[in-house]
Amino acid sequence: MPMFKRGFLYFLFCILSAGLSAQEFTPVVTQFTKGDYNAANQNWSVGQTSDGTMYFGNNLGLLQFDGSEWKLYKLPQNKIARSVYVAPDDKIYVGSFEEFGYFKKDEFGQLKYTSLSAGMKGYKMQNDEVWVIFNYNGTLVFQSFSSYFTFDGKTVRGVRPSYLFLFFSLYKNQVYTNVEGKGFGVFSLQTNKFSLIENNTLKNSVLAVLPFDATKALLATNTNGLFLFDGFSIVPFHTSIDEEIKKGYINRALISRNGLIVLGTILDGVFAINKQGEKVWSLNTSNVLQNNTILGMYCDKDDNLWLALDKGIAFLHLNSSVKYIHSFRPSIGSIYSVAYSAPHLYLGTNQGLYHATLDVNRATVNNIELVPQIKGQVWDITKAGSQIFCGNNEDTYDLSQHPIEKVLSSVRGGICMKEGVINGQEVLIQGTYSQLCVYKKVNGRWVFSNGLDKFVNPIRFVEIDYKGTIWVGHLHKGLYSLRLSADLKSIDKLTSFKSLDNKHELPVGVFSINNRVVFSDNNGFYTFDDLKNRIIPFNDLNKKLGYFSHSNHISYFKDNLYWFVRNDATALVRIQDNDVRIVQVIQNTPFYNQIIDDYQKVTPIDENICLMNLENGLALFKTNVNDKNQNKPELQFKSVVTTDDESKSTMLLPVKPDEVPHTPFKRNNLIFTVFYPYYSNFNNIYYSYKLEGLDKIWSEPTLTSHKEYNYLPHNEYTLSVRTMTKNGTVLSESSYRFVVNPPFYLTFFAKIIYFLLLVVAVYLFYRYLTHLFKEKKEKIRQEQEEIRQKEIEKRERHITVLEKEKLESELTVKSKELAMSTMTLIKKNEMLAEIKDEVIHQKKMLGTQYPNKYYDKLIHILDENISSEDDWVVFQSNFDRIHENFFRNLKTNYPELTSNDLRFCAYLRLNLTTKDIAHLMNITPKGVEVGRYRIRKKIGIPSNKSLTEFMIEFK
Prior knowledge:
Blueprint: H1 3-15, E1 23-24, E2 26-27, E3 29-32, H2 34-37, E4 43-48, E5 54-58, E6 61-65, E7 70-73, E8 83-86, E9 92-96, E10 99-105, E11 111-115, E12 132-136, E13 139-143, E14 148-151, E15 156-159, E16 169-171, E17 174-179, E18 183-187, E19 194-196, E20 206-211, E21 217-221, E22 226-229, E23 234-237, H3 242-248, E24 250-255, E25 261-265, E26 270-273, E27 279-283, E28 294-299, E29 305-309, E30 313-316, E31 322-325, E32 335-341, E33 344-349, E34 352-359, E35 364-375, E36 378-384, E37 387-392, E38 396-398, E39 405-406, E40 414-422, E41 425-432, E42 435-442, E43 445-456, E44 459-464, E45 470-474, E46 479-484, E47 491-497, E48 509-513, E49 516-520, E50 525-529, E51 534-537, H4 539-545, E52 553-558, E53 561-565, E54 569-576, E55 579-587, E56 602-604, E57 609-614, E58 617-622, E59 636-643, E60 650-653, E61 662-663, E62 669-675, E63 686-692, E64 706-709, E65 715-724, E66 730-740, H5 748-846, H6 852-866, H7 869-882, H8 886-893, H9 899-909, H10 914-921, H11 925-939, H12 947-953
Parallel strand pairs: 61-66
Antiparallel strand pairs: 1-35, 2-31, 3-30, 4-5, 5-6, 6-7, 8-9, 9-10, 10-11, 12-13, 13-14, 14-15, 16-17, 17-18, 18-19, 20-21, 21-22, 22-23, 24-25, 25-26, 26-27, 28-29, 29-30, 31-58, 32-33, 33-34, 34-35, 36-37, 37-38, 38-39, 40-41, 41-42, 42-43, 44-45, 45-46, 46-47, 48-49, 49-50, 50-51, 52-53, ...
């Protein structure tokens, strides 16, 4: 016997006791409470329509769930929905207390209820409560404990036999039931007769008859277990949990499509066994169920299981590739590392190292025991050849030895290990709390060689590249690369990197993909460029991984397959040359609260099974790299609602119209609701929308299954919707074509009116233009007439101006003549005055020699000619005619002026000098000044105004 196997036997002998009971991996369970579906706690039955929608009989009515939304439909008088049956035509038949009927979707996607019991004739319901509904040769049967009702599509008939019976079960076209006081047998719906099965050894009522194989049926009783029935004889069907299911009190039973027998109990949750009677798993309030009483069960089209509970609803992901142990009992703590060497399973936790055996076929963990020698935090369990190393806070242990040996190392706190080749030598490098340790092979086994004393750092990750360079990630921050000496005992070259992006100092994960070292800071992957001798982003990997480029851990699986781990999801990725393809995505949502942040690892168990460590639990992944997920449902439209912005009233459009639906323009606010009944992954379903005719790009993915568009312009549109996972994988697409009609003022009828109005407008416009042309013509004529008239007036004005100019010229001439005449008169007077003076002078000189009579006569003649009134009258007349009634106007305005003043004013108007005026008036110059002052005072001219200018300007 090889030493390794002998070691394990001795190991088990030393540390294992009789062993604890096995803990099985159970299906992932999604719980729904009354807070989720907004109805009563108690649920009775389950059904599913062909479009994938689930329906539940609830105390408050019929519950609908499409993967996105819950909706409650009330029954008449708000009665309890006890039973639900979905017919092939997708009518949802519901049974209640003294009421039964069916719901059916209309063209708008809304459920409408039709009561069948209300139209029943010849039968009066009395405390009849419908518990079972099934289809018998095209006739619907509704069964209560004291009566039953049939509906052939037209007529409803009620029958009340003379005895009481339990649940009807249809098997091979016969109805089986238990009749009170008689036992188990066949009941004829045609004759209402009951035939007891002979050789019946049953001590308990049969609540379900299920097809077991081609020749036998499985009978489920409440407290007497299971039996097989071949049509004649009944024999017990023993299981590994007979006592458990008897004590649990079976209430519901079914066989799934893959042959799994599921038993729902009143007291102890649900059990699953195979057809060999072996327990597969069980669920109750001790692990995941919120209630132990199973009132209804249903396997949907994906072979997943729905449980109607006395409190809430449970969805069991039977068809999922994931199962898990919700919690170990008693608790073993947070699991940080897992190693497996069939059948031995090692679990490294914060409490110490646990050993167990793993039954891969039955998916059970057995005989879990704490290894006494290794307690406290265990960080790492690594298989290296035939050895298994365990590193915890204190020491590193070799589990393959018996007894378990401490590795000969004075270094404590083993965190990680990695095999590789350095300087042509096979080595095992271990990272610890304080330094790196080197292991070498001696006689085929790894043996501690030495520590690297000059490198003192707590190490979280270790990898060795193809050149023999050691890459280590610090426990808290930073990255280092080391080149060792030829003897592997010292460091020749040490390089540190504080950051991957030269911006943020974060913890760095170090991994290997196809012999290429890869670094991660949870924000993306990086690698080392040998040519540029620096760390660069691994763009090809980041781009192709998308959502999973932010993974915090990479675990190698097999061949070219790697697990990329995030806290919320895990992806199996095939990386071959430049091809990076996501093969499988597993959501961590069911056990998200058990995730050990940043310490999640996936450990391969065999070719198709891996384990993920959890907080006091384990998740089991079954991989199928060839699974193309062909059975995904279709994305469908649930409702299309239009609203009137003014009245806020709503109307519905058909969800699957034969013709393109139209909505009036005033109802151009639309709300679209879609659903995608993919319950295995409904927590990871996102929706994206694009309205052709309005949107240019797809909307950002959102969890909401509603999309609202307001105030759409009139046009033809197509709403495209696609559903996808968080990582961007498109699951399904659908579209809805519709038309928003134009407003009334843009309809065809309105266009006819507009055309007629246009014709009228054109005619009126023509008339207007004609009238305008006439008016314009008349205006032109008038303008021409006005121009002609203006020319005439212009000529007349020109003539007038010429005449005026002529008159003014004549006036000027006459004024000049008058002035000349006046000047002549002045000169005459001056000459006569000189003659007079000379005469007077001669008289003085001659005295008596010049006789007086001659002297006096001559003086008299001279005086008469110097100041002649006749001259003045003539002057005044001419002056008044030339100067437009100057004297009259002056006298009118200033009546105080005397005749002498008026004469003085006339001389001023002629702009005569003081001397000239004195000569004309036969006064002295001083007399002229006195006259000026007198006239200025009478007229009231201010002192700064010239009297001559005033007279010249006066009119």
